[in-house]
Design brief:
Chain lengths: 258, 303
């Protein structure tokens, strides 16, 4: 897919909680085709310490509005600057980058998308697509506490939603992999994105029950376009770049100790 | 429109702007963003005789005005390059130079010998300065005797443009430059990355799997500029300057210090179209300052 360097303009900013904002951005030209799972490399301007671009998942593309959504969690200076931007501001992005999730072959497949924290970002776009294609999606979303559960209302519009919180303030108490939904392992497809320990636990569950499973990795990136070889993950085919061969990988390809 | 053409040893270049090894892939990664034929040359990824998996993740860390990397020369080896990559880049309308690395002299020689047969590769850049491999690599670049030995061995089997890339991790860069010139280098490029380190205080762990790595980006520019200036005064062969070049002004500074050509490295990650913009920027500078040819600014520093 052809990649573009675009100055996107922020149209809306939604403060979801103290740590998370949803930015809606538009382009003066028609946005290029973007697939679920793909990401943007965002240039952080006016920051004395942020030098490299930052990879951020495409959360959703609203074709009718020519809008692209980014869900940003503040973890450091770069994401803080992004979260401080306001409608009207320009954000320079390279899009679309990376691969996409595999669409199940069977329309009646039981699909669960498991997200943790800001890792729900790419799952929303993928779930929305699956829902539109006629798949029935189940979302299992985990967070520390109720206020950290992101876009719950949006997810509820496109599937069945279950939650876990570490403090029990919403849904079941505990981690996603402890949710009762998973007691009966009758899912055919699992897609997951979130903190690495969570994804490893999900991958281990999928491997044990022989369920198809794709994870979306968040390795640190230098370029995002396959030029620097900084973002590699160890796979059955050797070190592969997460930015071009991923971020989505089938767990069978990863050399995770699960 | 000033005349931007220049000669680097045996290489005819349409302009002095090249892209640095390891930061520009094989060039094709950037073709969506810019016209590759607009730049003077592309130095492709570090290539070794046999496939290398490189170092473990994490291989990079951002630092103040720069980054550390410890990629460790991941590549599929020279034969894979010839079979799968060369056909896709040989017809690019620019100088495609292969960056050659090794851990033993014999590796360098064999790799150079194989690349010598490729019609559309007008030169190699001998990387005797990589800080990210345990054996060899930088070891060749930090002693005059070892540097001379590997360069003269390669010179015997390689008859096109032989650029030798120097490490800044030395006490006297001019001495090493003289040694590789005497050993038969056609030109010299510098600097490779500076050995550095970063620590995560929260986890009390090093940021890189290798603990230390190579620093690049604007943080290294003053050092690179000083070294280019020292080397151009020590040798007669042309010098390619690099290290922290982010824009045309930086590039011009390197040329004023004595560089015949320049390379753009880490800057490609922030703006994948920057090398083409630097060509335009140099042209604007020449026009504004009434130079008719880019060669007029080489070493034009007024002291
Ligand atoms: C493909 C991909 C998609 C991503 N999608 C999103 C997204 O949709 N929304 C979002 O908010 N974030 C996303 N991230 C993570 C985001 O890129 C990092 O949080 C961001 O780069 C941190 O930059 P910073 O300057 O704020 O923090 P820094 O100051 O660079 O780092 C602050 C802390 O965050 C940690 N950190 C830095 N980079 C990462 C990383 N890549 N992953 C995990 N921890 C990191 C550091 O170790 C450090 O402790 C994604 C990452 C990748 C690779
Ligand atoms: C990710 C990365 C990989 C690199 N790989 C190589 C390499 O394979 N061979 C080499 O000679 N130099 C390599 N370098 C060094 C650069 O070519 C260049 O010398 C250095 O980065 C300084 O220039 P800069 O500050 O403009 O980046 C690499 C640099 C980076 C950042
Ligand atoms: S981030 Fe540079 S190759 Fe993936």
């Amino acid at each position: 897919m052809k990649k573009f360097i675009l100055d996107l303009q922020i149209t809306h900013k939604v403060q979801l909680n103290k740590q998370n904002v949803l930015l809606k951005l538009t382009s003066k030209d028609l946005l290029p085709e973007i697939l679920p799972g793909q990401f943007a490399e965002i240039r952080v301007d006016k920051s004395p310490t942020t030098f490299l671009r930052r990879p951020i998942s495409i959360n959703f593309v609203d074709i009718a509005q020519n809008e692209l959504w980014l869900l940003v969690q503040i973890v450091g200076e770069g994401t803080k600057r992004m979260a401080e931007m306001n409608p009207g501001d320009l954000l320079n992005a390279i899009i679309p980058l990376g691969n996409t999730f595999t669409i199940p072959t069977d329309k009646n497949a039981k699909v669960v998308l498991i997200g943790g924290g800001v890792g729900v970002a790419p799952l929303y776009m993928f779930g929305e697509k699956l829902n539109r294609m006629g798949y029935k999606c189940v979302f299992l979303l985990g967070a520390r506490s109720q206020s950290d559960l992101l876009l719950l209302n949006e997810f509820e519009k496109i599937g069945e939603v279950y939650t876990t919180t570490e403090d029990g303030s919403h849904g079941e108490k505990g981690y996603v992999t402890q949710h009762s939904l998973l007691y009966n392992p009758d899912f055919n497809y699992i897609y997951t994105c979130g903190p690495t320990p969570m994804m490893k636990a999900v991958a281990s569950y999928a491997a044990k029950n022989e369920i198809f499973c794709e994870v979306s990795l968040e390795n640190m990136m230098g370029c995002g376009i396959g030029a620097c070889l900084c973002c590699v993950t160890d796979t059955t085919e050797g070190n592969l770049c997460v930015c071009t061969e991923g971020p989505v990988f089938n767990i069978n390809k990863l050399k995770w100790q699960i | 429109m000033a005349n931007l053409t220049t000669k680097l040893g045996r290489l005819q270049m349409k302009n002095p702007v090249m892209t640095a090894s390891g930061t520009f892939g094989y060039g094709t990664e950037y073709s969506d963003f810019m016209d590759l034929s607009r730049i003077g040359g592309i130095i492709v990824k570090g290539t070794t005789l046999r496939e290398r998996q490189g170092n473990q993740y994490p291989r990079m860390a951002e630092t103040a005005s720069g980054m550390l990397n410890a990629v460790g020369l991941q590549n599929k080896g020279v034969n894979y390059f010839i079979e799968h990559i060369y056909p896709t880049i040989k017809d690019l309308d620019t100088n495609v130079i292969v960056n050659v690395s090794g851990s033993e002299i014999d590796d360098y020689v064999k790799t150079a010998e194989i690349i010598n047969e490729l019609d559309k590769i007008p030169g190699i850049e001998l990387n005797i300065s990589c800080p990210n491999v345990k054996e060899g690599g930088m070891a060749f670049g930090v002693s005059c005797a070892a540097a001379a030995k590997v360069v003269s061995a390669v010179r015997k089997v390689y008859d096109k443009e032989l650029i030798v890339k120097l490490s800044p991790n030395v006490t006297d860069i001019a001495e090493i430059a003289k040694a590789v010139e005497d050993a038969g280098a056609d030109s010299i490029s510098l600097i490779n990355t500076l050995l550095g380190m970063a620590i995560n205080s929260k986890t009390r762990k090093p940021m890189l799997s290798t603990i230390t790595g190579g620093l690049s980006g604007p943080a290294v520019k003053p050092i690179a500029l000083r070294m280019v200036w020292q080397v151009t005064h020590a040798v007669k062969v042309p010098v390619v300057g690099l290290g922290g070049i982010m824009n045309a002004t930086d590039a011009i500074e390197f040329m004023l210090a004595g560089a015949t050509a320049i390379q753009v490295g880490t800057a490609n990650f922030i703006d994948p179209a920057i090398s083409e913009k630097i060509v335009e920027g140099i042209n604007d500078y020449l026009d504004t300052n009434n130079f008719s040819s880019v060669t007029e600014i080489i070493g034009a520093l007024e002291i």
